[in-house]
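OP here, attaching both records as promised.
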Amino acid sequence: MNCRHCHAPVDLQLIDLGTSPPSNSYVTTETLSAPERWYPLRVLTCTNCWLVQTEDFADRSEFFSADYAYFSSVSESWLDHSRRYVEAMAERFDLGEKSLIVEVASNDGYLLQYAKARGIPTLGVEPTHSTAVAAREKGIEVLEEFFGTALAEQLAAEGRSADLTAANNVLAHVPDINDFVSGFATLLKPAGVATFEFPHLLSLIDGAQFDTIYHEHYSYLSLTTVRRIFAANGLTVFDVEQIPTHGGSLRVYAQRSDSGVRAIEASVGALLAVEREKGVETPDYYTQLQSQAETIAADLLVFLTEARSAGKTIAAYGAAAKGNTLLNFAGVRPFLLPYVVDRNPAKAGKYMPGSRIPIVGEDCLRRDRPDYVLILPWNLRDELDRQLAYVREWGGRIVTAVPSLSVA
């Protein structure tokens, strides 16, 4: 395998999670009796540019299909994060009715709705039909395409260059990261700004967040590597913020290398120094995650098995992609975990890929009053603790498995 960015041979393994189906390919009642496609899930590190990346076994159209079931607006905390982002960007970069914000991977309009409410012209780019339809219902224009240099050139030629581009939790999702990044350099106005949010590699490794690894995440990113990829494709990083979303993420600000005028903030050098001290450019940094993942999976199995033997009842909450990685790596099946509750109507009545655990509505929790509720999207623990406060009324306890088993 050669690196997606620098094309050097890649052979340093970060983790091998065996095989699993794509984590967002939820099983329907109609397909329950049909076989699923399982692919190896192995992540390697390029020791030339230090890009951490999955091996490729399937086309991205299989991961981002027309019935894609991830809708950003389901999470109240994510909506609040997006509203505050729009407010901050509008103020910092003086965006108004003569500006244009283009969001790549605009999903169901969760972010652009706040720009539209401020009177700022917007355009979404979103390849999944199900979420694009939801965004259009909010009055947001959406191009139903994958983003890259060709689309950026088309938009620029049409006079739709951007003052601000937003790309939240998508930089890791693209197979051709060079073409994707180059597209932003093409689409931006000379003084335009591109922002990217993505889970930080340091959070993944230091927090044993192996369940954030799944097939549609092609890359796992440090600022060290992102800065290098951007520079090779016409963008210069001028600021970076560490934010708490998704268990610890970065918001990177970039400008065109040929025309950008903003000074590079001290935050860039400071975080690069932290990463260097952690060892992101040394092979040893990438050797611990495998054993940590195996311990987490084993501890979860022991807990579920012992609870079942003791006659305790268990349910899970949040049919998240990260939950599918965890359940499939640990080998959890419905006899240990009978169902997963989720508020997303696009997932209700379906089954978790691989494990085939049914996804049900929240009324099942109130009806069954389980002894334990396992939260799969642990990054939303605070939000879900508030939503599930009623579980404690009957003595139920909240469980998380990552970064270590916790019962509270």
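Record two, same layout:
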Amino acid sequence: MDRTEEITLIKEIIGLAEQKSAYLDASISHSPISRYCSPDRFERERAMIFRRKPTVAAHSSELAEPRAFLARDVMGLPVLLARDDSGQVRAFLNVCRHRGARLERETSGCKRVFTCPYHGWSWTNDGDLRAVPQEAQGFPDLPRSERGLRRLPAAEAHGFIWVIADPDAGGDLNVDNWLGGMAAELDWLALADHRIAVEETIEIAANWKVLVEGGIEAYHFRVAHAATIAPHFPDNLSTYQMFGSHMRSVLPRRTMTALGDTPEQEWSIRKDANLLYSLMPTTQMLVQQDHIVWINSTPLSEGQTRMRLATLVPADTPDTPQMQAHWEKNHKITHMTLREDFDLGEEIQAGFASRGNPSHLFGRFEGALNRFNLLVEELIAG
């Protein structure tokens, strides 16, 4: 985000506040509840979106050193992320090419060679088959080049490691092609210069789209967040903008609406607003004054989502007990606020079984929710 755009966004918020108007789309819209509770629909999303589109698998700081590795679930696949001696990041299925056992049982560490715990076959961290016990006798004609680890398209960009969770995808992964205009926004955030200070993983009994919808409008702030953040934000004031398949939401604090008498050179959007970047399919970044909350979702079923919340802080901030306490306090506030949304999401998901509503109704100031769902429809359609 350049300075001109920053000023323009702030002026837009001030203008809406002066007009006493929300940010309005042209009309109301509807979202059928089948989008959120159908197993068949979820399988189409898995096939056409989760397994075909680039997804964030890790922050670069989690794989900082040569020979570092991570073993984790990525969109339902067991994945092994490894940085080789030259610093290149690779992604493989964490599956032995002999009999299919899980190759690496540790969740993280530093290794050059991965050895299967079943029969002892081993591979280097660039995926090449290294050794096969009793190979000459048992596998005299083994085509070694065909038994390397199954590779996934992977790339490192903007402080994250991105993966396409499909071993048949082939080819290289160009993250900036997928991000489009959002790439410049991520450059502005300098995410590669951050580290994880606090994190947690929780499971929520709600569809992944219900949880996304809960974060991209401010209509609910006054009621749902009355005991947490509502006093700091204007009632039902936010804006959004699409960047191809991705969205940026601006959630202004009350201080922003009072900037009219302050010189423009003193304006700072991060000081007076939260920014929420929603990267399709399942990554969001909540940008606050001095840190960023990385929200990474793994949809498990049509009604279950695993959520990882990680507070990213500038890597050059002192790693002292006092600063750690500061990050933990802020993380707790974010957790409490999101938990209010998640609890509502679980109630909404449970309510689908009642068939009380054939669809959700989105008002003109909830246009971001409709645009998000239309985008999902477009991606499912290919």
